[in-house]
Amino acid sequence: MRKLLLVFAASLLCVAANAGKILTDSLYSSVLGRQMRFNVYLPDGFGRDASERYPSVYLLHGLYGNYTDWNKLGNMKPVVDELIGTGEACRMVIIMPDAGGKDIHKVHNGYFNVPGWSYEDFFFSELMPYAESKYNCFSDKSHRAIMGLSMGGGGSAVYAQKYPELFSSCYAISAWLDQPDFDQKGKSMPEDCYYWTCRSVRENSALDYVDKASAAQLDALRGVRWFLDCGDDDFLLQLSMDLHMKMKAAGVKSELRVRNGAHTWEYWHTALRLALPFVSDGFGRQN
Q: What integer pLDDT is reported at residue 16 of this predicted model?
């Protein structure tokens, strides 16, 4: 027992000595016509050396959520502090953008372009250059990764498919990768914001992308490190399994982990302990 207490105390000291901070920032988007907030995790000592540059991770939230979710509900900061402190993850900047809200029928949710919500354009033409410039991030593929949960897991996977030249790794957690029943159910849905969210997921299906990809597109996917992580009781599990098998058949290497758990914050919190070391290991590689 004494030994366990000493180990626990040492881990607390390690976290305290490597405590980063989370800030809320915003930028005006001319694409979306509004001010857009985002949270950013900065490692301990950020800014002490003005010449130091950092790899970046884009950490995406799910449906009903917003830019505060990973901090407030996912309790991500102590995990990041600990992993950086123990050397399991490198010093990094983590950007948590805003792509939704709780009232899914009246507020646009999602990472793809739909009428009145050109979020994908905003993300790549405005958010990414703004955040990476302001927070001293490298601006190359080998020092940039993307990950997310549920809607954000699907968004991260599709972004990495469409823009493999921008991301070294993708870690998709409990990912909403397709809405296969939309072609039928969409006919009876009111065309509100939720309708467009579901339609955009169907039209940007990560599974269809692999099926329809050209030889050149598949080759580009091989330059990204892929990890799919989903609970055994998660209602979206089959989608991750299907994408993994499709990529495997196409010669695109991916990792698949099916762990004990469901579509819950408990699961997503623990996923960070796998996700951050995974993307850290990919930083600096020339894919």
A: 53
Both structure tokens of 26:
């915003």
- Token pair of 114 as six digits: 């739909």
pLDDT in tens, 217-229: 999 999 999 999 9
Note every long-range contact of 215-223, with CB atoms under 8 Å and residues 24 or more positions apart, other chains counting: 218/250, 218/251, 218/252, 220/164, 220/165, 221/161, 221/164, 221/247, 221/250, 221/252, 222/251, 222/252, 222/253, 223/164, 223/165, 223/287
CA distances from residue 4 to 9, 11, 16 in whole angstroms, order as listed: 9, 11, 18
Phi-psi region of 231 (alpha: psi -120 to 50; beta: other; left: phi over 0): beta
Strand partners, 172: 148, 228
CB-CB contact of 232 with 176 (8 Å) = no
Give the number of other CB atoms < 10 A from CB of residue 43.
21
Angle at the Cα of 28 (from 24 to 32), degrees rounded to 5? 115
pLDDT of residue 50: 86
For residue 58, give the DSSP letter: E
The strand pair at 21-29 and 34-42 is best described as antiparallel
User: How many CA atoms does the CB half-sphere of 127 hold within 13 Å?
Assistant: 30
Task: Give Rg (Cα) of the chain.
Answer: 19
pTM exceeds 0.90: yes
Q: How do beta strands 225-231 and 254-259 pair?
A: parallel
Q: Which residue has the tokens 């709780």?
A: 102
Low-confidence residues in the chain, pLDDT < 70: 1-17, 286-287
Cα separation, 128 vs 138, whole angstroms: 11
